[in-house]
Specification:
- It comes from Prochlorothrix hollandica PCC 9006 = CALU 1027.
- GO terms for molecular function: nucleotide binding.
- This is Gfo/Idh/MocA-like oxidoreductase N-terminal domain-containing protein.
- InterPro entries: Gfo/Idh/MocA-like_OxRdtase_N, Gfo/Idh/MocA_Oxidoreductase, NAD(P)-bd_dom_sf.
- The chain contains 9 helices and 15 strands.
- It is an alpha/beta fold.
- The protein has 2 domains: 8-141, Rossmann fold; 148-283, Dihydrodipicolinate Reductase, domain 2 (2-Layer Sandwich).
- Strands 7, 8, 9, 10, 11, 12, 13, 14 and 15 form a 9-stranded mixed beta sheet that branches. Strands 3-2-1-4-5-6 form a 6-stranded parallel beta sheet, sandwiched between helices.
- Strand 13 and strand 14 (273-275) form a beta hairpin.
- Helix 4 (93-105) runs parallel beside helix 5 and helix 7 (176-191) packs across helix 9 (310-328).
Length: 331
Amino acid sequence: MSTIYNILNVLIVGCGNIAGRFDMSRPSTDWPLTHAGAYHRDHRFQVIACVDPHEEVRSQFMKFWSIPVGFQAIDEISHKNHQFDVISICSPTHCHAHDLEIAISLSPQLIFCEKPTTASGIETEKLVRQCKKSDIHLAVNYTRRWDQDIRKLQTNIQNNQWGNLRAVVGYYNKGLLNNGSHLIDLLNFLLGKINIIKVGKPIYDFFDYDPTVPMWLETEDGCPIHLVAGHAQDYALFEIQFIFAKGVLVMEDGGIFWRSRQVIESEIFKGYRILTDSIKNTGHYPHAMLQAIDNIYRAITQNEYLYSTGDTALMTQFFCERIIQESISIV
């Protein structure tokens, strides 16, 4: 017996990498990493239109993803002639505020926006309020909130499965807002409120407006957190190490892999406890985009709780902006 479900119509604004191009050069059997790829795989959605100012880019995107209608600008779209259940904002960050304004006027049920939501926390706050006033769900793509490994870790921390958390060390590059904000948002999700203890000098390794900043943070109960700044010209870097009383857990390559080490009695030094060699496991991060789309569908049709919202993204953005301001003031 076939399952009957409502099909939701989608508009994608921006036809770049995260919109769908990352998946255009990958096997169709791989887990989708993009908005278009995830919508295409989940048959409860259909992408019926897209927007991009570059005609060749837009045409290629439409052809690959079988999208029937394309626009040069979101301003061309009229609510009277086009109705969308979901609008994905995948345009460059400096376009987000304008695109979100128009998207809200089109009255979708949900807007799924890339991060940072806008280029300014004040601007984001205004648009979050507008979405609430218009009764529009706002999801922001801090993808790891949909990663089942992260949600399981949150439960394990709450249940004290690994014992007390002693320290956290994270590593990132390519800008605090662009990349490091994922770490900040992840820490907020897993550990609750985070306090700033000290920030280091800014490192301009990719964007001239978004430095990578080393920092020392602390949880409300005093657990130390050190976020180490790398350099984007060397290689991509996004890892985090959790040091627990009962062992060490490390997220590698953004969540593609995880390593764990358990505590055992030393066979060499009597009375000492040591860590075992690390065990490497493949993570579920590649599944996260499909999990996000599933959460979005259920939020619309069943009023399910969204794992990443305008409010949680706003908290992360204000936190990152404060760190950047403190860092810049050092120079």
